[in-house]
Amino acid sequence: MGFSTDNLKGFTLALLSSGFIGASFIIKKKGLRKAAAASGVRAGVGGYAYLWEPLWWTGMITMIVGEVANFVAYAFAPAVLVTPLGALSIIVSAVLAHFILKEKLHALGILGCIMCIVGSVVIVIHAPQERAITSVQQIWQMATQTAFLLYVASVIVIVFVLIFHFAPLYGSSNVLIFTAICSLMGSLSVMSVKALGTSLKLTFEGTNQLIYPQTWFFMLVVITCVIIQMNYLNKALDTFNTAIVSPIYYVMFTTLTILASVIMFKDWDGQNIGNIVSEICGFVVVLSGTILLQVTKDNDRNASRSACIRSIIPKVTIFDDSTLFWERGFVEACRGGHGIFRRCIIETAGAILTSFRKHKSKILSRSF
């Protein structure tokens, strides 16, 4: 497929954007860890000490540079080309996390990343071309059609339910909560970014779009959505493995963005069944990759818990049925805890087991 000059500019900017954004995940997480170590309160549980951490701001600036490049790319190339290229940020963040953050990416995680990228490529190959836009008022007509207004209302309701109900209960244990909030708001921000970018491009070409209130409204939507995205993306990065957050965020964000684009811009109108089915198959491949990544995360979490328990509880030198029974009970109890509560359980279990082993003969003699 031959690229026009504008498409080539958009493609290059999208590649640079993916590199900067992928690196920003790593820099920001190192800043979050440093801030949490200094303050004792993590961002995942409501802490904001990272706002005074220079390393976190370095990551934020890196992300802003990437987002600006991405913003400009939407002004030159269609969304179906720019959005899926975010898959490259997965590779960047996963590789850097493996070497810098020591977050090991196992074979299933690598396969999951590959499946996400392959599925996205299938979507791009069969995605429809973007229709020509000549004014911000034309975009406003698309944004105020009934179907898209229903989509916007659904996103707002779901985000409110996730923030005020599910996030307090399951945010620290389910990676999908925080990433879903980011992705839902991201789908609206991309539509507004496309509108704003097109307006600025038309303005620079000589057709002033700044005189229309719709341009400023889209700018307000972009700012609001980005603030919410950054807040919950910080929580996701601080709570879960970077190699897991990045691909899942990409998958959900890309899926919802393409869905929003299909509704708003009627991208599937005029497409044949073959192309539509191919796009759906691409989604299935991407979702399958997400499942593999989730399995990898669960295995890592269980392994880290077992290592933590083994490091705290001394090894048993004399085994009998009663000792194994109590140890299994304590281990199962430890698996259900979270945060400080879990550490208290483990430390208490270790102290009780140590005391039990020391005085086991006396206890058993008294019992019988």
UniProtKB/TrEMBL annotation:
Transmembrane parts of this sequence: 12-28, 72-101, 108-128, 148-168, 175-196, 216-233, 240-264, 276-295
Pfam families: Mg_trans_NIPA (PF05653)
Subcellular location: Cell membrane; Early endosome; Membrane
Keywords: Cell membrane, Endosome, Ion transport, Magnesium, Membrane, Transmembrane, Transmembrane helix, Transport
Membrane topology classification: Multi-pass membrane protein
Predominant place of localization: membrane
Gene Ontology molecular functions: magnesium ion transmembrane transporter activity
GO CC terms in record: early endosome; plasma membrane
Function text: Acts as a Mg(2+) transporter. Can also transport other divalent cations such as Fe(2+), Sr(2+), Ba(2+), Mn(2+) and Co(2+) but to a much less extent than Mg(2+).
Assembly, per entry: Homodimer.
Membership in a protein family: Belongs to the NIPA (TC 2.A.7) family.
Protein name: Probable magnesium transporter
